[in-house]
Design a protein that fits this description.
The structure holds 2 protein chains of 2 kinds. By secondary structure, chain A is mainly beta. Chain A contains 4 helices and 20 strands. In chain A, strands 1-2-3-4-5-6-7-10-11-14-15-16-17-18-19-20 form a 16-stranded antiparallel beta barrel. In chain A, strands 8-9 form a two-stranded antiparallel ribbon. A two-stranded antiparallel sheet of chain A has the order 12-13. Chain B is mainly beta. Chain B folds into 2 domains: 94 residues, Immunoglobulin-like; 82 residues, Immunoglobulin-like (Sandwich), CATH 2.60.40.420. In chain B, the strands form 5 sheets. A 5-stranded mixed beta sheet of chain B has the order 6-12-11-8-9, with no helix packed on it. Chain B has a 4-stranded antiparallel beta sheet with strand order 13-2-15-16. The longest helix of chain B is centred in the first third of the chain and has 13 residues.
C-alpha cells in the first residue's frame, strides 16, 4: 500500500519532467555534518541507548545527507511533491521521506480547500519549515519534532480548509485540517524503548531503524543474552485507519497558533511481521510569534499516551499474565531565533520531556539545551555550529539494558555545511 | 514620487478640459488629505479618491495600461488604484508559474501565467475592491482598487497625499485601506475645491489598524510546508 502510493507519487512526478521548466521546482542540497559527541550510550540510529544521532567514543563523527525536494505542477490544480534523500550512514542509503499529490481547487469564495494524498508529514511542526523538512533555525530538531521525524508520517489523505480573512481586510486567517491514514501503528515504540531524542534524522518510508538491544541475564550465570531488534514505525499492523484533526489561527503573519489531535487508533493487541501495534494518541499545541526586536519565538507542546502489552514475545505470543499498560508522554520546547543582517542567525532552544507509567515509574525525564549559530556564506552555502546538551533520567534503564546507568548526560558540538547544488527560484 | 501618484497627477492633468488641445489650463485647485492612526501617527498606503459631484463629467483621457507584476512570489504593487475602464496587464517575472484569481464581485477571473510571460491586459469597469490571490502560492495577496474618477492617489509615508489640478467644484472624497474592516471605513466626505487654493481633510481612525501586509521579512518562516 505504502510502496504503491509512493511509486504513484514518483510516477506522477516523473511523467511530467519532460515538460516546460516553470512547472518544476527543485531544491537539491548536500549537507555534511561533523560531530564531536560526549556520550557513553551510543548513537540511537546504531542501536545505542542514547538520544544523539552521532555518539562515537573519542572520535569525530561525520555524516552526509543529500536531499532533493522536488515539486511539480501536474495539471492546473494538481501538484506533486517528492522528497528523496541519500544518507551515508543508513542501512538503506537511498530513501523517500515524502511523496504526495496535492489537489488545490480554485477558490470560488473566501474559502480555500486543499487536499493531499500520499505520504507526508501531518501539518504539526512549526520548526521544520525548510526544504526536505529541515529546520531553518537549528541543525537538530526539538524532541517533539525529532520524534515526529522518527515515527509519525501520514500515509493517506489530508483535507485542509483555509479561510483567509485577509481577503476581507481582516488580519485573521483561520484553517481547519483533518487527515486519515494507514500505517503508523508502531508509533510510540521508540518513546517506550529509548525515550525522547534530539537530532535531525528523519525516517524514510519503508525504513527499519534499530531499537536499543535488550540485555537479559544469561542462563546459569552464562554470558548475557543480547536481543537486537528493529522497527518500521510507519507499518500498518491492524488495518484500522488512524486520524488527526486540528485548527490553526494566524494573525497577519505575526502570530500563529495550532491545536491538533492525533490518534493512530491502533489495536494494541495486534501483531504483524514481527511488530506490535502501539495505541498512541496525543494532543499537540504549537505557537509562533514575532516578538519586538524581530525575535522569532516558536513553542510546541505535546502530551499523549500509548498503550502497550506486558509479557509479550518477539514472535507475537502473549503470555498468560499479559496486561495492557498505558505510558504517558509529554514534551515541550521554546525556541528563540533572530537574524542579524542577511547572513547571521542565532537560535536558542530549550526542550523538556517526560515519559511515565503507572506505579510512579519515570521512563524518561530530562531536558535539552541547544545553541546554534548559522552563517550564510552565500545564497548557496550555509554553515552551522551547534552545541547540544541533554540530561535525562530513566528508572528502567538498568532493568532493561543491564549495565546502563539510570542517569545520563550527553552533549555534542556539531558543525555542518549545507551546499545548495541547485535551487529553482522557488 | 510614488508611481501611482505620478500616474494620478498625469491623469489629472490630462483630464483638465482643454489641456490636450493646448489651450490655457482651466482654473484649478488641490485637495490635500492626511490620514492618521488612533495614536496620531501617519498611515501610508491609504487609497484616496475624489469624484467630481458637479455636472462636469470628468473627461477621461485614455488611461494607460497598468501593470500588476508578480515578482519574488509577491504581487507588486500590493495595492494598485485604477479608474474604471483601465486595462491591467499581469507580467510574471518569476521563474515559476502563477495562477492569479479573484472572486471579488467587482471583477472575477482566473488565469495561469507562465514564467516570464505577461497575461493580456484585462479591463476593470466596475468600481470596487478586487482582491487577488495565487492558487499556487497561497501567501500572495494584492488589491486592485477601481475608482470611478481619474483623481486618486495613495498616501505616502507621512500619511499625506495631494490630489492636484482639480477643476473648481464639489468633490466626494473617499478613502480605503486594507488595514481595517470595511465596515469601519469612514463615509465619504464632500469637499469644495476653490481655484488656486488647497482644500484639506484630515482623518484619524478611531479603531486600531491591522499590521500592514508583509512578505516573509522576519526571523520566522511563515508559509505552510
Amino acid at each position: 500500500m505504502r510502496l504503491a502510493l509512493a511509486s504513484l507519487g514518483f510516477f506522477a512526478a516523473g511523467a511530467a519532467v519532460a515538460e516546460i521548466g516553470d512547472r518544476h521546482s527543485f531544491d537539491l542540497f548536500i549537507e555534511q555534518h561533523w560531530a564531536d559527541a560526549d556520550s557513553t550510550l551510543g548513537a540511537w540510529p546504531e542501536g545505542g541507548y542514547g538520544k544523539l544521532r552521532y555518539a562515537p567514543e573519542g572520535d569525530l563523527a561525520s555524516g552526509t545527507r543529500i536531499a532533493l525536494d522536488y515539486r511539480v505542477q501536474i495539471a492546473e490544480q494538481l501538484f506533486g511533491r517528492v522528497v528523496v534523500d541519500y544518507i551515508d550512514d543508513a542501512d538503506e542509503q537511498l530513501g523517500a521521506t515524502e511523496a504526495y499529490v496535492e489537489w488545490r481547487p480554485l477558490p470560488e469564495g473566501p474559502a480555500r480547500y486543499r487536499y493531499r494524498f500520499g505520504a507526508f508529514y501531518p501539518s504539526l511542526s512549526l520548526e521544520n519549515s525548510d526544504s526536505a523538512w529541515e529546520s531553518p533555525y537549528t541543525q537538530s530538531f526539538s524532541a517533539i519534532n525529532s520524534w515526529l521525524g522518527e515515527e509519525v508520517r501520514t500515509i493517506g489523505a489530508e483535507w485542509r480548509l483555509s479561510r483567509p480573512l485577509t481577503v476581507e481586510s481582516s488580519p485573521h486567517d483561520i484553517d481547519a485540517f483533518a487527515g486519515v491514514f494507514y500505517g503508523n501503528d508502531p508509533a510510540g515504540t521508540f518513546l517506550f524503548w529509548r525515550g525522547w531524542s534530539v537530532h535531525d534524522r528523519q525516517i524514510r518510508l519503508n525504513e527499519h531503524l534499530p531499537l536499543p538491544a535488550l540485555v537479559l541475564p544469561g542462563w546459569g550465570g552464562g554470558p548475557p543474552i543480547v536481543i537486537e531488534r528493529t522497527i518500521d514505525p510507519i507499518a500498518e499492523i491492524d488495518d484500522r485507519p488512524g486520524i488527526y484533526t486540528g485548527a490553526e489561527w494566524t494573525y497577519a503573519d505575526r502570530a500563529k497558533l495550532t491545536l491538533a489531535f492525533w490518534d493512530n487508533r491502533a489495536d494494541a493487541y495486534a501483531f504483524r511481521d514481527g511488530q506490535w501495534a502501539w495505541a498512541t494518541r496525543f494532543w499537540h499545541l504549537a505557537a509562533q510569534v514575532t516578538l519586538p526586536g524581530d525575535v522569532g519565538l516558536i513553542a510546541q507542546w505535546q502530551r499523549g499516551d500509548t498503550d502497550w502489552l506486558t509479557y509479550t514475545t518477539d514472535t507475537g505470543a502473549t503470555m498468560p499474565q499479559t496486561a495492557l499498560v498505558t505510558d504517558e508522554f509529554e514534551a515541550r520546547f521554546l525556541l528563540l531565533t533572530r537574524e542579524f543582517g542577511d547572513r547571521h542567525r542565532l537560535s536558542l532552544r530549550r526542550d523538556d520531556f517526560y515519559i511515565w507509567r503507572p506505579g510512579d515509574i519515570t521512563s524518561d525525564d530530562g531536558y535539552a539545551t541547544t545553541l546554534s549559530y548559522s552563517y550564510s556564506a552565500s545564497r548557496r552555502v550555509d554553515t552551522t555550529i551547534e552545541w547540544l546538551e541533554i540530561e535525562s533520567t530513566r528508572d528502567l534503564w538498568p532493568a532493561l539494558y543491564g549495565q546502563v546507568s539510570d542517569y545520563a548526560e550527553e552533549s555534542v558540538l556539531q558543525f555542518s555545511v549545507k551546499l545548495g547544488l541547485f535551487a529553482s527560484a522557488d | 514620487m510614488p508611481h501611482a501618484f505620478r500616474q494620478a497627477a498625469i491623469v489629472a492633468l490630462l483630464a483638465l478640459p482643454g489641456f490636450a488641445a493646448g489651450e490655457t489650463a482651466a482654473p484649478a485647485g488641490n485637495i490635500r488629505v492626511r490620514i492618521l492612526d488612533r495614536d496620531g501617527g501617519p498611515v501610508p498606503e491609504v487609497v484616496v479618491s475624489a469624484r467630481p459631484l458637479d455636472a462636469v463629467a470628468a473627461p477621461r483621457a485614455a488611461a494607460p495600461t497598468e501593470r500588476m507584476n508578480q515578482q519574488q512570489l509577491a504581487f507588486e504593487p500590493h495595492i494598485l488604484i485604477v479608474s474604471t475602464g483601465t486595462e491591467i496587464a499581469f507580467p510574471n517575472e518569476d521563474d515559476v508559474r502563477h495562477h492569479v484569481y479573484s472572486f471579488s464581485p467587482a471583477k472575477q477571473f482566473n488565469f495561469s501565467i507562465d514564467s516570464k510571460a505577461t497575461h493580456d491586459a484585462i479591463r476593470f469597469d466596475v468600481p470596487g475592491v478586487v482582491t487577488l490571490g495565487c492558487n499556487i502560492h497561497d501567501e500572495m495577496l494584492a488589491y486592485i482598487v477601481v475608482v470611478d474618477t481619474p483623481h486618486f492617489a495613495k498616501t505616502g509615508v507621512d500619511g499625506s497625499v495631494e490630489l492636484t489640478g482639480l477643476e473648481a467644484g464639489r468633490y466626494e472624497v473617499s478613502i480605503w485601506s486594507s488595514r481595517i474592516a470595511q465596515k469601519n471605513l469612514p463615509d465619504s466626505v464632500e469637499i469644495a475645491v476653490v481655484e488656486g487654493e488647497v482644500a484639506t481633510w484630515e482623518y484619524g481612525f478611531a479603531e486600531r489598524l491591522h499590521p500592514p501586509h508583509r512578505h516573509s521579512e522576519t526571523s520566522l518562516h511563515w508559509s505552510h510546508y
